[in-house]
Structures are given as structure tokens and as C-alpha cells.
Amino acid sequence: MPLFSTTDANTGAPKFAVAGGLGVAANGYTLYANTTASVFVPGAAVGVFGVDATEIALGANKANKPAHTGWVLVKQGTGSRTGRVQTEVLVAGGMGADIGTTANDNILYANT
User: Which residues, at least 6 apart from 33, have a Cβ–Cβ distance to it below 8 Å?
Assistant: First the structure.
């Protein structure tokens, strides 16, 4: 059974604990497309997103775009840390046009 797939859906997200360093035992399936603050980490929105080349190229993603396509963990601060966004590539490449599937061409961090 694979640990992730190239399908931009909760069923394709990484199956391992992707935010363990934040004290969160949730896997990618649970964190998929989450943008709600304080659900998993107090004072922060933590989510996993399948990112393809089109999403990285969108002007709206320019300020906070990840380094690569693939599965990306996004941490957004709230309160005194509002506007602070950190991205971490969990699985590089293989999303969207890279292998002929279609990812959600949305602004990152928006509900998908």
C-alpha cells in the first residue's frame, strides 16, 4: 500500500504523521485542505495541500509559494502571527501535469 498518491484529494495525501514536530499526530488525510485555525495547533491553521505547477505559478500564491510541486504542509499564524505563512514540501514532484493527472488549480491555502 503506497504512502501517498499523486491525486489531489484527501485519499491521496500522505498517510504518515506529517505535522509531528508541531505535536500533531494527524496524517495528511486528516489535515487535507484545512484552513481553520486552532483545530490541530492553538493559534495556527495547519493543512496539507496537493500543489501542481499551475498553482505555484498563480500570482495569488507568489508570496507564499512552496519550493516544489507535490504534497505541501502549510502553517498559517493567527493573532500576533497573522500573515506569517510557512510551507514545507513533504513529497516533492509528481502532482498534476507532471504525470498527466489534474490537481485543483486553486489559490493555495484557500478551501479546495
Answer: 10, 47, 48, 49, 111, 112
Residue 35 CA: distances (Å) to CA of 85, 94, 98: 12, 23, 26
H runs (alpha helix) in 20-94: 28-31, 53-57
Q: What is the pLDDT of residue 82?
A: 84
For the beta sheet containing 70-77, the strands, ordered from the edge strand earlier in sequence to the opposite edge, are 44-51, 70-77, 85-92
Mean pLDDT across the chain, nearest whole number?
80
Asked whether 42 and 71 are in contact (CB, 8 A), the reply is no
Q: Which residue has the cell 507535490?
A: 70
Q: What is the DSSP letter of 32?
A: B
Q: What does pTM read for this prediction? A: 0.82
Determine the Cα–Cα distance for residues 12 and 36; give it in Å rounded to an integer: 21
